[in-house]
Amino acid sequence: MSAYAALTTAGYRAYTRDRTTLFFTFAFPLLFLVVFGLVFSGQDVEQSGRPYIDHIAPGVLAWGVGNAAVFGVAFVLMQWRRDDILRLIRMTPTPLSAVIASRYALALAVGAVQAVLFVAVAMLPFFGLGVAGSWPLALPVLVLGITAFLMLGVIVGSYAKTPEAVAAVANCLMIPMAFLSGSFLPLDMMPDWMQTLSRALPLRYLNDGVSAALTGGSTGGVLLDCGVLAGFAVVLGAIAVRTFRWSDSS
Q: N or C: the chain end with fewer CB closer than 10 Å?
């Protein structure tokens, strides 16, 4: 516990001192909200008859939370391994679980702030997102989504050896996934083959779960999305543990 507390405290201090990263972590999803809010202001999705904001806001929020989880842990693990910090940690009685758990605690805190800030802005009259009474169901969806994407970030951070490699790999995963999973455009507008492909992506279920919780969708659907996200978290977690490297030579 002392190792976990020390790593968590150090991670929090490093994160809050990096004001550029701190700013863009929260501003980047809001930028997409503003852009899509301006483009689709007052419009409804023809296929479902619902306002665009009901599709776009939960999707962009889900993508922003997942994106932050992936990049946050991937960059840190790459830097710690490159600077031999992980090798020094390994020489202490600190288990791998403490290292990952410390990053997980920080990812959950960042995700919570992102969600509250994003929903508060989306509910402004200009955007007009109406939050349903089932909104608390978004909490387990976000927690499980952050867990799955954190594990994906551990995998990326274990293989990438430079900041450029982290950015390239993570963006190649997260940006196409955002379009294929309906974060930026409703899935109803996409071809059938693309909707089928999206079912193999964790972001699809994070989008659907957050959207259903915030806009009053089926509780059963939210529970199903939680189950699938939990499955992704277990599988990606198992891969992350097996591929984790304390140094570039091991």
A: N
